[in-house]
Design brief:
alpha+beta; Alpha-Beta Plaits; Beta-Lactamase
């Protein structure tokens, strides 16, 4: 079978993948294996693209014929790093090159980048980079909004890539770009859904549960954190200082929820509403312990923060049945939870200002680790028909003194 026919088969395979739901790491690994299988002498390859993610500005896959493929993610902080600015990838992007080649041995050898000198030392003989332009959301590396993918290919074969190899890599570029666009767009969509809706709500939205009223009844530990004195501080502090304080606050009260497997459903002003779903007969114990660990971590992080004197917050937790699903109007929906227990934790937060405790929980949660809690007796909560027995941490060293003004400014 001719080399041309084999490359055509790879192109057809890539189009088939584009019509499915390809995983981009597996896709790139299989492509490199198939190219090697038809005689293209690949020893190393890399694929890079910009992304939409709160932590990462770009993603990159590295492949070699011994270890296979692995994914690396590059943070926004490294956007202007020296290693990036002096890389072939940056050079190709800046000059909008469709193809870039450097022979690493022989009379035409040119290693004008540090990474190419490293490749020379490792025995590589030829290096090729190809680029494809297509829109990935509204992501851009430069003001001209150029996006798409960059692929690099390297070989150790004596004499480097043959002309037929260069033609083959250039030929599969368009069909490979189509498959990449499908895979990358799916990753970007999932990242955005997880970031703004949470993994469960994001999955529901992607699976089609997007009509108003769609939802399900679940049992969950509801976690509610609220910053004290926020109105007063927002008026007294410069905007930048106040936003910095809020960043520290959310790092304290929200990140531990995610670390313990909970889901943040909403930021209500400076309040954080989250849930720890209860699964099965023994799920309450697991959910309550996860929520309690998140609470303890939040308090510990506050003590370690330079902003701890101003960052006073309370956390309330209760267990109940909630409806988890779409609420709002047809043109603007939100995934959230509704139910009496959601109102209850908000009212528990209100009374925490009077009781002077930084953590309040209900009996169901306190009973999981009953030696860690002390009953404060039945408390009347605004809007709740019957009194609710509330518990505070037995060693609540974080309890703050009640400030009458706090009721007016919180």
């Amino acid at each position: 079978m001719s080399h041309t026919v084999l490359i055509e088969e790879i192109e057809a395979w890539l189009i088939d993948k584009a019509l499915g739901d390809p995983d981009i790491v597996i896709l790139f690994q299989r492509l490199c294996e198939r190219l090697s299988g038809v005689g293209v002498p690949l020893d190393r390859a890399a694929l890079s693209w910009p992304t939409l993610h709160p932590l990462f500005r770009a993603e990159q896959i590295f492949w070699n014929n011994e270890d296979g493929a692995h994914l690396e993610q590059h943070s926004h902080a490294n956007r202007h790093s020296e290693s990036w600015m002096r890389s072939p990838f940056y050079y190709v992007l800046q000059r909008q090159l469709a193809m870039f080649r450097r022979r690493l041995t022989g009379d035409e050898a040119m290693a004008d980048f540090d990474v190419l000198k490293d490749f020379q030392a490792q025995g590589f003989t030829d290096y090729l980079m190809t680029s494809s332009d297509f829109r990935i959301g509204e992501v851009s590396e430069f003001e001209d909004r150029r996006t798409g993918t960059l692929a690099s290919w390297a070989t150790k074969r004596e004499g480097g890539f043959a002309d037929a190899d260069i033609r083959a890599l250039g030929r599969i570029q368009k069909s490979f770009a189509v498959a990449c666009r499908v895979a990358i767009q799916r990753r970007v969509t999932t990242n955005l859904m997880n970031t703004y809706l949470g993994p469960t709500a994001g999955k529901k939205a992607l699976s089609g549960d997007i009509q108003r009223g769609d939802g399900e009844q679940i049992r969950a530990v509801v976690y509610y954190a609220d910053l004290r004195g926020s109105t007063r501080m927002s008026a007294a502090l410069e905007s930048e200082a106040y936003l910095g304080l809020l960043k520290h606050y959310y790092d304290c009260v929200a990140q531990p929820v995610l670390d313990e497997g909970g889901e943040i459903l909403d930021y209500i002003g400076d309040a954080v509403l989250a849930i720890f779903p209860v699964h099965g007969d023994t799920g309450l114990r697991e959910a309550a312990r996860a929520a309690t660990r998140a609470m303890e971590a939040a308090l510990a992080l506050r003590e370690q923060s330079d902003e701890k004197d101003r960052m006073r917050f309370c956390i309330s937790m209760a267990v109940g049945e909630v409806m988890f699903g779409n609420v709002g109007v047809s043109e603007r929906l939100s995934f959230s939870v509704i139910g009496p227990v959601v109102n209850q934790v908000a009212r528990m937060d209100d009374i925490s200002k009077v009781l002077g405790r930084s953590v309040l929980v209900t009996r169901e949660i306190a009973n999981i680790e009953n030696k860690s809690w002390i009953s404060l007796g039945d408390q009347t909560l605004v809007g709740i028909e019957s009194p609710v027995e509330l518990y505070a941490r037995l060693c609540d060293i974080d309890a703050f003194e009640v400030n009458p003004e706090m009721k007016k400014t919180a």
